[in-house]
Amino acid sequence: MELITPLQEITRLSHLYYSRQWMFATAGNLSTRDEVIPTQFWITASGKHKGELQETDFVCVAVSDGSLVKAAEGLKPSAETSIHQVLYSQMPDVGSCLHVHTIDSNLLEFGVGKEEGFREISLPPIEIIKAFGIWDEKPNLTMPVFYNHTHVPTIANEIKRYFTENGIPKVPFLLIEGHGPTVWGKTIKEANKHLEAVHFLLQVMARRL
Amino acid sequence: MELITPLQEITRLSHLYYSRQWMFATAGNLSTRDEVIPTQFWITASGKHKGELQETDFVCVAVSDGSLVKAAEGLKPSAETSIHQVLYSQMPDVGSCLHVHTIDSNLLEFGVGKEEGFREISLPPIEIIKAFGIWDEKPNLTMPVFYNHTHVPTIANEIKRYFTENGIPKVPFLLIEGHGPTVWGKTIKEANKHLEAVHFLLQVMARRL
Amino acid sequence: MELITPLQEITRLSHLYYSRQWMFATAGNLSTRDEVIPTQFWITASGKHKGELQETDFVCVAVSDGSLVKAAEGLKPSAETSIHQVLYSQMPDVGSCLHVHTIDSNLLEFGVGKEEGFREISLPPIEIIKAFGIWDEKPNLTMPVFYNHTHVPTIANEIKRYFTENGIPKVPFLLIEGHGPTVWGKTIKEANKHLEAVHFLLQVMARRL
Amino acid sequence: MELITPLQEITRLSHLYYSRQWMFATAGNLSTRDEVIPTQFWITASGKHKGELQETDFVCVAVSDGSLVKAAEGLKPSAETSIHQVLYSQMPDVGSCLHVHTIDSNLLEFGVGKEEGFREISLPPIEIIKAFGIWDEKPNLTMPVFYNHTHVPTIANEIKRYFTENGIPKVPFLLIEGHGPTVWGKTIKEANKHLEAVHFLLQVMARRL
Predict the structure, then answer these.
(1) Could you tell me which of A185, B38, C113, C131 has the fewest CB atoms within 10 Å of its CB?
(2) Pick from A131, A203, A207: which is nearest to B25 by CB?
(3) Per-domain boundaries in chain D
(4) How confident is the model at residue A1 (pLDDT cuts 50, 70, 90)?
(5) How does DSSP assign C46-112, residue by residue?
(6) CATH domain A6-207 topology
């Protein structure tokens, strides 16, 4: 088995997701918790072409408050770093967060209100849900869907409020309406597995409309 | 012509099916009957990434009862081995069984009841059906669709009951609702041909909804 | 520019079309008129995997009556050779015929009757039609759609009857219902251009349903 | 970082767009303003297979009136050069214009009248719009949609009339009905980013129909 670093692994996923049209234009951001210093994580720099991302196109950020720890000259953290920061701080065993834009997730319209902030939406009880480690027959699951505030830290705050009020979601992902899914996992491999399952699920939901 | 072993051939199909998004997350399982000892078959080990499968990622299982014959350390048979076992034991001339998850098969909802177990569903009489070796004009065919029990051996039992009550299906595949198709063939090549035709057929059915 | 033979060119198209899922299972057949002896054409042999086709997988057939001129041992002409034969004999300047199975062409249901044999179906007046060399603004075009007789020579006869009664279609293709489009062109390159345009057109028609 | 010329960069995009089925048959045309002489631009020659385009398949045209400045023997400018000419002359800071044919843009039917010439059409306020540099929450945007005159210079004139009457559109693209989108950007990279975002947007619009 070939040995690659976590940033190389994420970089490969970036190219793969771009080829799947999940990271068109400069959409999406990918991150991984630092292996040695778990109070830090690495996230894709802002404005990079995701099909040409390199392992040097990441910046290091503090889990506690999202402040910049380390960045090569000219690199700024993704505009959506605050969302990753909340996820890492709320879930100490999460090692990777992946956010992409998919057509199918944008077709789903739930009308979550701006003041409301978020709402629980039902998921169809199909087999792919076992990829989340949920083995109930015909499980009655929901996913949290958030309003797409322009001010990203407001979304991050709503996510924090959701975790505080409702605990960690049973499914390892959330959706921002008209925007895209964000998934997490203990490792990059697990987060990728979750994202593929989420994409399958959202495709089924969007095409059943 | 390049010579490859059956497990190499199946491994290549695994990579191909992954690239077609038929084996996302860890979905699906592929098997082939042992060339020398036909009372045994080889099936993908549980939990493997299907885009990175290697020819060493298979375990050997007995056709008679699905018991483990041989497995490298750390490898467990796929959770759905019992379904393959029933198919090999019911059809002595079958050399390969392929099971994948496709979006289109998940869009089709027939409402097969849990107690009911299975139901025959009509197929559209399109040209691709000739890939199954059926040459009738506008054939009036059905496929068996099974309830997706969480306890996989229960599905396997229902499939066995179906074969006992109805004989071998005219078409070389069955569908588990909300889950995916399972196809078979005399050889890996024939099973692959059947799977491509089944995918074509289910796409047409799902998009005509 | 690299020099390749016509059979190499067709073989490459076969691989490309397979990767586009236009030649799944063993679907479709491709042919080209012999460069030296225009009363003969070369067509894909029956039952070949189109993603693995080789330039030796063609047989040579007479334009006059579809009889076999030359074939390597074990190779039989495609079951649909009679359709190609009619097209080459009706259109002396045609150098290549391409027939594939696409999902979109199978979604379109026109209900052409068995006795009726064929019917003219309207095409939407979109820009891609200029690929057929038709430059009218909002052209009012039709394509001939044929009943999918199991006995392929009966389809071939109906196509011959169509050409006799109606002349050469204005668009360089026909459709067999529930089966797929057949296109033609002066050269392989032109036939390929026509097929890409036909696929575009049929996708628009199928998705507007 | 590898150094490539603008024509090499555009040639690569041509191959990429062909593989995405945005430039099927001979559809579409791509151009870039000359780096040294900004009163000239380079555009794909007419009738080229976009999957096999080479960096020598471009001709040089004057921004002022679209007259031919330079062309290798046998090359003619794309039939739609006049549209590019209007865009470069109306927007001095635009460095690249990209026009492709997509299925989704052809599914959208707005019924813009021939005499009317163009109409403003609303866009859904989804996240991908930020790729255009527009950061309003739920922006109330429109795109200009033009009637597809067969006489291309008439479309070009309508575009010029639009720019004169309405100014530069807020979004960096326009749509010709039944034909396809044309995007622009300061650089080839920016134009490509805009095109990917436009494709995302039009897919969402077409699939929400």
Answers:
(1) C113
(2) A131
(3) 6-207
(4) very low
(5) TT--TTS--TTSEEEEETTT--EEE--TT--B-TTHHHHHHHHHH-TT--EEEE---HHHHH-----
(6) L-fuculose-1-phosphate Aldolase (3.40.225)
